[in-house]
């Protein structure tokens, strides 16, 4: 089986200048876990996953203490009200992941599954030979496949 047979073709994408507010609204409205970020011609620039939009626990340097960090800054509970204002101003390109794996439509589906299971990426962009996004593949796509085969 090839990636093309399993992927969702022509996925929604974002431009790098879209705000985090726009991205978060689309992710919530469509119930996505991520959105590929592309240039005007559709070339893959990065991937914005829900995880990039949320604070995450990090170890404070030279300490055993963990604190929340968002967009590279330490945040406390009082800062949470400030997040919406940051979402309005911050472009997607400031927080998107650029070090993401990708697959091609003609690749074996097994190769894509290995990538999904061995990386932190939960949504795998599918690109053509010119690096234009033509599809997206998720872990859930494989679950659906396994259930169909049963």
UniProtKB/TrEMBL annotation:
Q: Which SMART domains does its entry note? A: CBS (SM00116)
Q: Where is the CBS domain?
A: 7-65, 96-150
The keyword Transport belongs to this UniProt entry's keyword annotation = no
What does the record list as coiled-coil region(s)? Answer: none
Task: List UniProt keywords, sorted A-Z.
Answer: CBS domain, Kinase, Repeat, Transferase
Q: Can you provide one Gene Ontology molecular function annotated for this UniProt record?
A: kinase activity
Q: Reply yes or no: does the keyword Transferase apply.
A: yes
Task: List the protein's name.
Answer: Acetoin dehydrogenase AcuB
Source organism per UniProt: Thermus brockianus
Q: What is the lineage of its organism?
A: Bacteria, Thermotogati, Deinococcota, Deinococci, Thermales
């Amino acid at each position: 089986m090839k990636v093309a047979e399993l992927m969702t073709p022509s996925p929604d994408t974002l431009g790098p200048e879209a705000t985090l507010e726009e991205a978060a609204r689309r992710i919530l409205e469509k119930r996505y876990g991520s959105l590929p970020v592309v240039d005007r011609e559709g070339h893959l620039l990065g991937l914005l996953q829900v995880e990039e939009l949320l604070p995450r626990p990090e170890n404070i340097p030279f300490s055993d203490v963990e604190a929340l960090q968002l967009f590279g800054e330490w945040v406390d509970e009082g800062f949470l009200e400030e997040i919406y204002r940051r979402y309005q101003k911050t472009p997607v390109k400031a927080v998107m992941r650029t070090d993401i794996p990708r697959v091609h439509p003609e690749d074996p589906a097994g190769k894509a599954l290995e990538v999904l299971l061995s990386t932190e990426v939960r949504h795998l962009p599918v690109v053509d030979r010119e690096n234009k996004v033509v599809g997206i593949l998720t872990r859930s796509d494989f679950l659906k496949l396994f259930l169909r085969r049963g």
